[in-house]
Amino acid sequence: MHTSVGDFPGARCNFGVRRPRAPALRRRYGAGVSDDAIQQLQGIDAELAARLDEAVDPEKLYALQVEFLGKKGKLTAKRALMGSLEPAGKKAFGQAFNAIKAAMEGRVAGRKETLEAQARLAELSRIQDLTMLPQRGHVGSVHPITSTRRALETVFRSMGFDVLDGPHVEAEQYNFDDLNIASDHPARDMQDTFFVAPLSGGQAAADLVLRTHTSPVQVRAMLTRKPPIRIIAPGTVFRRDDDATHSPTFHQIEGLCIDEGVSMADLKATMERFVRAFFGADLAIRLRPSYFPFVEPGAEFDVVCPFCERTPGETCSVCRGSHWIELGGSGMVHPNVLRAGGIDPERYTGWAFGFGIDRMAMLLHGVSHLRLMFEGDVRFLEQFPC
Ligand code: FA5
């Protein structure tokens, strides 16, 4: 709390009001007080009052305070007048000095408050856009391949499948040998791939490849789980491919189901349920005989083109008029693969499939060129808001 100037005798005398004359001073400070000495004090107070406006910031106010009230300040210096006074006048002078000093301190404190209030106002008015709507940061979206993968996972999870992951750098044995693709088998040419160079001076890595498909996860699942096995394994794969519908890096989803008495009919029924859940319609499916060394019998899995209806009378740009869209390969797991996975083919059978996720994403979103999916062009990606 600071002292109010009005609390002290003489405190109001400097606001342009005439200073009290000697008789009034004597009445106020008592007999024996020196009129001249007190008038000097009042003069200093009046000067401070007149100069307070100079103190436009806390530093200038402090300088003013030091100039008047500091150890060597103008008012403090007047304390020496005490020595020249009669004993009777000393007490009255001391009271007057203290009262005027308190009044001056009150002026400084008052000015300080004014400055602080002004500073607060200035600070508040500086923030001019309190009501401005905040600018939203740029929000990205989920990549269409990721959203397609997640949708696939949701569907298969709901059908009782576990989701497994496998390494991108894979042992040649799991990628080819254990999948019944011998080293001299021409099927390896179909998946001509990226081999990992041996570490110089370190462990030879000649038998490591960037996996060409998600099928090696079949072997890994068999080696780590016991039937009944129901898994899917979505992930990135790599091949030496590059055209409008083939990319060197792409994504597949593997499906594997192994149990006693599993047949091709189970594969077809599961695929029908998957298609209904994933595409949201009872689209017809077909299994077209095909060859994959790791299944027997093997089949390409096609789904009827859901886009033909959009352009009746015209050749559909998605299926190019064939009315069918190939999702990938499928079939009954070859006994050699079951054996490689430590599973008795006399007791257990299983089916498997491997679909391209990117192609499904292209179908779902009507994307014409696969490369668009991998270029990271924001103008393309912005078209798929979450
Ligand atoms: C395979 O990769 C088998 N592993 C699939 C399989 C699994 C068959 C289990 C039987 C049992 P394929 O090479 O046909 O099969 O590839 C499967 C799908 O991956 C293709 O139908 C296609 O949708 C997609 N695909 C293949 N190569 C590319 C590529 N370079 N770019 C984008 N998608 C591709």
Proportion of strand residues: 15-25%
Radius of gyration, in Å, reads 46 Å
Number of domains: 2
Helix content: 25-40%
User: How does the major sheet shape up?
Assistant: 7 strands, mixed
Overall body shape? rod-shaped
How many β-strand stretches?
9
Which H/E pattern describes the elements? Answer: HHHHHHEEHHEHEEHEEEHEHH
Mean pLDDT across every amino acid position: 85
CATH architecture of the largest domain: 2-Layer Sandwich
Class of the largest domain in CATH? Alpha Beta
Uncertain runs with pLDDT below 50, 5 residues or more?
1-18
What is the end-to-end distance? 59 Å
Summed up, the helix count is 13
Describe this structure in words.
There is one protein chain. The chain is of the alpha+beta class. The chain has two domains: 5-119, no CATH class; 144-381, Bira Bifunctional Protein, Domain 2 (BirA Bifunctional Protein, domain 2, 2-Layer Sandwich). The protein is 38% helix and 16% strand. The chain contains 13 helices and nine strands. The protein has helices at 22-29, 35-51, 58-69, 74-77, 87-126, 144-158, 172-175, 187-190, 216-224, 264-279, 335-340, 357-365, 378-381; strands spanning 162-163, 169-171, 208-210, 229-238, 249-259, 285-290, 295-304, 324-333, 349-356. It has a seven-stranded mixed β-sheet, with helices on both faces. The chain has a two-stranded antiparallel sheet with strand order 2-3. Strand 6 (285-290) and strand 7 form a beta hairpin. The radius of gyration is 46 Å and the shape is rod-shaped. The model is unreliable at 1-18 (pLDDT under 50). The site of adenosine-5'-[phenylalaninyl-phosphate] has 24 residues, from strand 5, strand 7, strand 8, strand 9 and helix 12.
